[in-house]
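Progress against Task 2.4 (sequence-to-structure conversion) is shown through the following example record, which the project officer requested during the mid-term review.
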Amino acid sequence: MDGWRNAGAEETLDPGDWEPVRALSHRIMDDAIDHLRDVRDRPVWREIRRGVRAAFDAPLPRAPLPLADVYREVAETVMAYPMGNVHPRFWSWYMGAGNFTGALADFLAAVQGSNLGGGNHAAASMDRQVVDWCRQMVGFPVGAGGSLVSGGSMANLIALAVARNVKAGIDVREQGVAALPQPLVFYASDQAHSCHRKAVEALGHGNQALRRVATGADLRMDVDALRSAVAEDRAAGRLPAVVIATAGTVNTGAVDDLRAIADVAVAEELWLHIDGCIGALIAIAPANAHRVTGLERADSIALDPHKWLHAPFEAGCVLVRDQAVHRAAFAVTPEYLETTPRGLAAAEWLYDYGLQTTRGFRALKIWMALKQHGVEAFGRLIDQNIAQARYLAELIAVEPALELTAPVEINIVCFRYRADGLARPALKALNIEIMLRLQEQGTAALSDTTVYDEHCLRVAIANHRTRREDLALLVQECVRIGREVSEEPCPVS
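Structure tokens generated for the chain above:
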């Protein structure tokens, strides 16, 4: 005891004087508002300067720095070089554009500091509420449950783990996959996201257990091919278990025939999982909700609030029709996490619905934005993005230097610059050069892919800041750069 009394003053991470922190925090808030207010005045993306990049090789800090100096370094090295997805002309891959209310919510969530592993507290109650709101948005029945997760990859993994356990015919949690009496088969279209391969591999079944079903000319799963694949696997002694339908493929936005696939799932006793990370939320869009009819028949759905609900990263959601089998796939009750009749542990543990015991307070940024704007506003924004994609497709169709390379179903447009007489490798190189110069000059960020075995550029419009004038500028610049590259003395080859 005497040793304790003679020790130095106890430390804390809280400041000794809160007033300078208050003043700096106000300045940071002003800078953050300016950052979003002026987003159109900045390049979409720019290369990190060499001197700035060197800062990320600095050694572990041992001595303290004033918080104002720390913030200045963040402003100069991080805030000045974003990925760009909040910019109105960012259309690479498939990302939402965030929203300021969600950013405020992330700050408040960090200040409140709750761990969403579960327990009897307000953040856990809000987590359950937001999951239920997601359930309502996609038309799942009362009683269905789910969990907020990091994103689509984790949502799909959680859903496939539940499906596998239900369809295995044995207690996989206790006995493991080596005890399976028959190899399980998972079915997805050849346009399905790569995260499904990772999920099936992580579950211990191997890539060969994921059977890629052919797609038709519309890039939707061929339902007859699905039936044939199931019959073939049964005849070979394998156990067809899960079919993964896609509500919006990552390449082109094609939406599988969800109702027809649901009929096959019922007839063949398959678990129907719908990967709706791109398109499930079309269910709230009044002009386009019909495109995802059949969502409500799924056994599980993956969706991403950080896409068309524009929540700041990360925010994914998995929904499972039978909440009991969802919990049975993950629940563990160690002695240190037993439920009590009263107090902090007098509630369900949310960690029983996934892999994380420690979970961030993701719900607040979704909850606050939905409260502020209302779900109907987000539905209108989805319709707006889909209309913008059709507008872009029309601009491309009438521009002789460009050509569409895939059908436009929702908000993804695939196209390329055409150059008569160029061989395929040279044409690919030309289009990649267009994409890179658009990025490097800060005009727009788009990605590329391969559709129908042909390379193309890809624009995914999931941005509430995008305007039609931005799309017109994209077409103009693609044509200008394409001609510029083609006329250079040593064009790409």
